[in-house]
Amino acid sequence: MELFTDVVFLSRLQFALVVIFHFCFVPLSVGTGLIMAIMETRYYKSRDPKDAAIARFWVKIFTTCFAVGVASGITMEFSFGTNWADYSRFVGDIFGAPLAAEALFAFFLESTFLGVVIFGRDKISPKFYLASAWLVEFGSCLSALWILIANSWMQTPAGAELSADGSKAVMTNFLQAAFNPSTGPRFFHTLTAIMIVGSFMAIAVAAWYIRKGTFKDFATKTLKVGVVCALVSTCALLVSAHSAAVTVANEQPSKIAMMEGHYDSGTLPLYAVGVVDTENEQVIAPLQLPGFTSFLASNSFDTEYPGLNDIAAENEDIVVEDMPVQLVFQTYHLMVALFGVICVVLLLGLIAVFKKGSTLSSKKWWQWLMIICPVFPMLAIQAGWAVAEVGRQPYVVYPATSSPEGIQLLTSEATSSLTSGELTITLILFVVVYALIAVAFVRLLSFIIKKGPDMVDDVVEEEGVK
Fold it and tell me: What's the confidence (pLDDT) of residue 459?
């Protein structure tokens, strides 16, 4: 129970819960925004009332996810001042710019054209309406970029120097700060993972209607779009994952060491599964491929990386016994394992859609697997964020390899002057309120899916479609 009197732990726990909740809706909104834009493009080209009904359906799904995502994101930003005041003082000169840009250049763009999409279908030209749908998705991606710029700066600081009194980081070059070494790889990796969530959401909805035997035209078209988008996104994810891993290996030595349970200098093996024996400082695993992670990070099996003991010997902030090695190791390998599950699901979807004469979609086990499939990329994303955030401990601003000297901040020095009692009360309130919002969201989403696409009056009634 000592942890629940620790202000730093409670502040981190509260922020983690807020971020986890918020980041359930970011992938859903950005991912389904792509499906919405594609369906609007299909309708623009075909002018088929059935395609119009599909497009309107995905507008509803996107809007629902977007609304909850915005509300939970505002709470997260407020906590920088309430729970992380010392952190805000240290990075305010840097952090304020991307957050302001996110609001001015991304959120306003996204929300303005979302209003056009919701209310302007019959009031503006089809071409402008289609452009609005794509601008909503572009605004969503741009919003994600600015947030990742801010977060990436904490991972690999650049374009800044320490103030004369050592109290804060001062920006010296906006472009270097914004496009620091990890911004590009992390944005590419996050965006491709988000698109998989949206694609799997489309697959899940289509599979639900296949199981129910209703809205057959909707199910067929949506399943094909979802599978194709998932295929493209998954292939892109392989490239982005490699790029992100190389950046971590080059810039954040303690993080890559924790990801592979690496205590002493040497090559990095690859584990499929395993458990870190923290007392004996070794990984217990049924199978390991020596040097394979070194090859993935550097194209050489012989590249050696420092272990946690070597890093601690040169850095007094690193205490090996206190490093969250087990958590980082397990979440990293969970993320990789879930990617394997995603590939299996995608393969089964491709067979059902493109193999001539396939009856796979009629199998109940296939239908249920496809219905629950969005859970897999969503869990993988949450595991990946755990690796990214927990893996940089004990720093909230990590002193990366290429970072200017002195640009670092320990998590223990970043909190506000709140008491453990105040944090506990607000933590409980957050859990209760967010639970109610989650229930309301699930009920609303279920209602939209159960009702299905609204067909216009001049469409001839079909079996299961009105």
Answer: 40
